[in-house]
Amino acid sequence: MEAYLIDAVRTPFGRHAGGLSHIRTDDLAAMPIAELLRRNPDVDPASIDDVILGDTNQAGEDNRNVARMAALLADLPVTVPGVTVNRLCASGAEAIVLAARQVASGDAERVVAGGVESMSRAPFVLPRPDTAFPRNLSLVPTQVGWRLPNPKFARAWVDSLGECAQNLAAEYGIGREAQDTWALRSHLRAQDAWDKGLHAQRVMHVDGVPRDECVRADTNREKLAGLKPAFTVDGTVTAGNSSPISDGAAAVLVSRDPGENPMARLVSSATVGVSPERFAVAPVDAINKALFKAGLHFRDIAVWELNEAFSAMVLSCLHLLPEVDVNRVNPNGGAIAYGHPLGASAPRVIMDLCDQLRRRGGGYGVAAACIGVGQGMAVVVHVD
């Protein structure tokens, strides 16, 4: 059996403390699920076998299985179960792949998959003290990066993601100018995609927010060059060539029955591990593995989508993938412009991949993401 992506919808991706920040995370997750079913009236909500959502934080309103909460809030029947998965930045892709496996194995007929993240609403947590009546207690932010790391981990493993990415860029001779150039490319292409209406069929309006808030049409080389390093005094990674902290949610209908005009067929997927400080190039091994499983070569791929955690990350991967035609990578911009709401990012990448393949007349495409703590994931799809 095979698994098909039938339809997909997402919220706009909101900027930090922006237009979506007042919405509870579980409510945000419910919105595209409800919209997906509204758009597909022939699908009986009771026939949904499962709801699988990726979510990275799970420390606030997304605690205790936000997928189940979102299913209930979306008015799905109480008989429809839900499960939440966490593979950090690839959590939403993991959800889609798990849904496809359920369908392809015959365990399910149709599944709703996707992801959510409200980084604006990520809470502070208070660690449980090791001793009674402690004199000092400190709140720990959960918005991004490590929290409460185990002291047994190697020091390099728990460096900030931006610092790790810029270290790899330096290793490959990728400087600040190249990183800023890629960031500008992302914003200009994302703005052009919105101007051309390429996202109109996928992005629902939410509380007066009609489009992604982080896309900066007014950015330029001078503005990017004027930003200070974000992670080290003499570093090359800045706020301008990094993905912004964002809020958003996405939902995809995965089915055994392709219907009349499916978005795509999921062909293969692969997840790999690397040393945590080299997480930024983990997509390279994942891509190679996913292509091998699909029996494909680089020349067979019409479109590539690499989730842009940092320009340094994308350029490092491309440095190690000389077979990839850069003109086919992120043709409509990436997460540096759109935003990176962790649990929802990979579904956005997969949606954009499928839609771009359709515009090109079909073919094979690859979506890939780096993952903190040293993992990478890639998904291969085919559009007829």
Automatic annotation (TrEMBL):
The cross-references to InterPro entries, in alphabetical order and at most eight, read: Thiolase, Thiolase-like, Thiolase_AS, Thiolase_C, Thiolase_N
Record key words, sorted: Acyltransferase, Transferase
Which one Pfam family would you cite for this protein?
Answer: Thiolase_N
Indicate the segments forming the Thiolase N-terminal domain, all copies.
4-255
The molecular function terms of the Gene Ontology recorded here are: acetyl-CoA C-acyltransferase activity
> Gene3D superfamilies recorded for this chain?
3.40.47.10
Write out the catalytic residues in the record: 89 (acyl-thioester intermediate), 340 (proton acceptor), 370 (proton acceptor)
State the source organism's domain of life.
Bacteria
**Domain Thiolase C-terminal stretches:** 261-382
Q: Which family does it belong to?
A: Belongs to the thiolase-like superfamily. Thiolase family.
Q: Which PANTHER family match?
A: ACETYL-COA C-ACETYLTRANSFERASE (ACETOACETYL-COA THIOLASE) (ACAB-5), ACETYL-COA C-ACYLTRANSFERASE
Q: What is this protein called?
A: Acetyl-CoA acetyltransferase
Organism, as annotated: Stackebrandtia nassauensis (strain DSM 44728 / CIP 108903 / NRRL B-16338 / NBRC 102104 / LLR-40K-21)
